[in-house]
Amino acid sequence: MYYSPDELCAAFVGSELIATGAFAEVVHEVKRHHDAHPNDLILIFDHKNSRPIEVDLRGSMEEVFERLEKQKKPLEPKVKVKKPGRPKLGVVSKEVTLLPKHWEWLAQQRGGASVTLRRLVGEAMKAADPLAAQRSAQQSTYRLMTAVAGDLPNYEDAIRALFAAEKDDFFNIIADWPEGLRHHIVQISEVAFDPSLASETQESESK
């Protein structure tokens, strides 16, 4: 498993949030907690998809990070580049054939041809399935809640409200849940209740 030290994630013991932030920072706090409370079951999840992240906490703090360093995600993909410069954010360079008038129009757009093309493709993908981002956010929130909140009061009612996109009911239902968990759920569930927010995220990632 590869990881990025800047990837946002959160760590829980039961339904209690013990650390959140960049992966490297969270692992540091998780290791400290593990050393002080070795019998606690600690679960780490990434923010984007609420997928579990496994970390070997054996040994010293230095040993933990030495092992993680070997699993560090490459900063850029290994791709063949035909022109100077390398694509960022995992973008792969491939040939695109357009008429001169198309290239002229793209060159006049804010950010240039590449940014504009990514934005247009993103908008087309969203138009093809406008609720895809919402479903993804619902599933991410559901995975997190199932893993750490299954024993909390009104859990099933909260799940129903989540998939019905009933925002007010959902947050009223979880109002008495542990504060850290509640705040984390607010963060990861935004698009589940407002799909329009997904376009803002896509735009920021395309720049």
Automatic annotation (TrEMBL):
Pfam families, from UniProt?
Answer: DUF2239
Protein name stated in the entry: DUF2239 family protein
Q: Which organism is it from?
A: Maritalea myrionectae
